[in-house]
Design brief:
single chain, 2 helices, globular, SmpA / OmlA family protein, signal
Length: 98
């Protein structure tokens, strides 16, 4: 019913697990509650196409990308960023104030 796993197989599995987890890193960003929000207004643009965003918000200050597959690009405005997957808005992110 149960079979024994050799020490070599256990060591190999541990090595693979270690190799897979070594390259994974994350950064935690903490923003004090009082610093969140503010007067900056970001319109709801999720799901809109690039030409619709330009019509609503004007031309961006800069454009980064596209990078990767799916192609992700970032448009920078004065107070926020707009992230696109291909031609469609995924998310808007307010720039840090300070």
């Amino acid at each position: 019913m149960f079979r024994r796993i050799s020490k070599r197989a256990t060591l190999a599995a541990g090595t693979v697990t270690l190799l897979l987890t070594v390259g994974v890193q994350a950064e935690t960003i903490e923003i004090p509650v009082g610093a969140q929000g503010g007067d900056t207004h970001v319109e709801q643009v999720r799901g809109l196409k690039k030409d619709e965003v330009t019509a609503r918000l004007g031309e961006p200050v800069s454009i980064q990308g596209p990078i990767g597959d799916p192609a992700i690009s970032r448009w920078e405005y004065a107070d926020f960023y707009v992230y696109f997957e291909w031609e469609t808005v995924l998310h808007t992110v307010r720039k840090p104030q300070g």
